[in-house]
C-alpha cells in the first residue's frame, strides 16, 4: 500500500530541506579538505614524514569508506535526518579534538572520528534528493549537491589558510568546529526524511546484513556506479585534500598564495563543468558511463604532459591539468544518477554507500602510495623532496585510471544487459534520450 503524500515533491519545501542538508555537506567537505592547506604545518607541528602525513587523510578515508555499507543500512532504516545529526556530532567532536591535539596519535584519532561523521553526510543528502525531487530534476540537483558541496573545499583552501596564519592552529580549527553546533539546530528544525506520511524504512537485523548487502552488490548497476565513481573521483580528491599543495609549492616552486588560488579556482571550474555535465547526462542517459570515461581521458592527457615535461611544466599547462582534474568531481556524481536506473528506493542507502566506497578507496590507496614512493625515493622528509620525486610518486595514478576504465566499460555492458532483461524497453527509452528510473523510485519517467 502506498504511503500518503502530505508535501509537494520538487517544490519550495524540498529546496529548503535540500539547502539545509547541503550546508551540512559543505561543512563536511570543509573538514575533510582542511588538511590540504595545513599539511606542511602539520608536518612541522608533529615532526612527521610524508608517509605519516598521508596517514592523517588515509585513515580518515579508510574510516569513511569502511563505514559506507553500515551507514547505508542505517540510512535505509532510520532516515537522513537522524544520520545528518549523528554525523554533525562526530565531525564537531573530531575537529575540536584535532584543534587541541598536541601529539600525532591524538591528531590521527581525531581525524578518524571526523571521518566517521563525514561518512554519514553525503549519502544522507543524496537520499533526500531521491525522496524530495522529481525524476527530471534528479540529475541537476545531484550535480548541484556535489558541486555546491565543494564550496567547503574553497573555504579550506582560502579562508582556512588565512585563519591558520592569523589565529594559529588551535584557534583556527576550534573556531571552524563550532559551525557544527549551528547546523545541528537547523537540521532539527527543518529537515524531514520524506514528503510521505510514512516513509518506507527497512528494518534489517545484523544477521541479515550480509545477505542484504550481497543482494545490492549483486546488481551490476551498483558495480557500474562504484567503478564509475572509483575512476573519476580519486585524482581530484588526492590533489585537493593532500598532495596538490605540496606538489605545487615544494615541487613546482609556486608560492603558497598561488597554490591556494589554484585550488580555489579548481573548485570554481568544477561548478561550471558540472552544470554542463548535468545537462549532458540528462540529455544522453544511455551514454552516462562513456561520459565518465571521456572525462577521465581528458584528465589523463594533461597529467601526462605535466609529468613528462623536462623540469617544471609551464604554469598554463599546470592550470589546464588542474582544471581537467577538477572535472573528475562532477563526473563522479554521475555514478549516483546511474544508481537511480538500477536501484529501488528501499535499497538506495546501501547502493549509494557501496558506490561511494569506490572513489574513496581509490583515493586513500593513491594517497598512501604517493607518500610511500616519496619516502622511498627521498627519505629526507618534506623539505628534501624534489620535483622528480613528486613526478615519480604522482605517476601511481595511472594504475587506478587504467583499472577503473576497464571495469567501468565491463560493467556498462553487464548493466545494460541486466536492464534489458529485467525491464524490457528501458534501454531503448534511454537511447531515445529519456531517463529511466527503477520502478521502485516514484512513478514519473517509468
From TrEMBL:
Which Pfam family, any one of them, does this sequence belong to?
A: MFS_1
The cellular location(s) given in this protein's UniProt record come to:
Cell membrane
Q: Where is the Major facilitator superfamily (MFS) profile domain?
A: 17-416
Q: Membrane topology per the record?
A: Multi-pass membrane protein
Keywords (alphabetical) are:
Membrane, Transmembrane, Transmembrane helix, Transport
Q: Which Gene3D superfamilies match?
A: MFS general substrate transporter like domains
* Parts of the chain that traverse the membrane: 15-41, 53-75, 82-106, 112-135, 147-166, 172-191, 224-245, 257-278, 290-310, 316-339, 351-372, 392-411
- According to its record, what are the GO cellular component terms? plasma membrane
The identity of this protein, by name, is Cyanate permease
Originating organism: Nocardioides alpinus
